[in-house]
Amino acid sequence: MKVELEKLENHEEVAVKALLDSGATGLFMNMTFAREKGFKMKRMKYLLLVKNVDGTVNIGGAITHQVECNMFFKGHVERVRMDVCNLGKIEVILGMPWLATHNPEIDWEKGRGKNDWCPPICGKKKQEERKKEVKKIEKDEDDETLRKLVPKRFWKWKKVFGKRESERILV
To answer: ∠77-79-65 over CA atoms, to 5°?
Structure first.
């Protein structure tokens, strides 16, 4: 699944193919990928032992660092924390915690996924709320500007003095 990861410190976006893995117990980023792309890695207080699918200990050793970033996928945005470890050729793994939280709809034949539903922790709902707040602020600012520029006796016709109406061209 193609996603965009945004670094928190400089807002640089990095496109990545994320593997959806219902057998993985978390969210993971490849150590080599993290270093090459310049993600800021934060040292963890406790080490986590990593086991491969076959039960053997991962050759890269224990997980010692995490990366925190924003992840974007088709209108969905959320802050994620990924454990950094050796994933071979895989760059990012989204495991069962992410899958269970988001429950994406996947078309396995076409290799596509969509995420129509976002839980409250995700940014999609927050973005929609922000848009509503911005519209309200813009409306309030328009009303304030109107009061400053238009004499009070004309306020009952304030709609014609609005930004949108004032930009219309009469034919």
So the answer is: 140
Tell me the C-alpha distance between 10 and 38, whole Å: 11
CA quadruple 138, 139, 142, 147: dihedral sign: negative
- Superfamily per CATH, domain 2-117: Acid Proteases (2.40.70.10)
Asked whether 42 and 31 are in contact (CB, 8 A), the reply is: no
Determine contact, residues 119/101, Cβ cutoff 8 Å: yes
pTM value is: 0.67
Q: Specify whether the CB–CB gap between 48 and 66 falls below 8 A.
A: no
Q: What is the three-class DSSP state of 108?
A: coil
Helices (H), 13-95: 31-37
Q: Supply the mean pLDDT for the chain.
A: 80
65 exposure class (CB count in 10 Å sphere: 0-12, 13-18, 19+): middle
pLDDT tens figures, 6-21? 999 999 999 999 999 9
- Residue spans per domain, the chain: 2-117, 124-166
Q: How confident is the model at residue 129 (pLDDT cuts 50, 70, 90)?
A: low
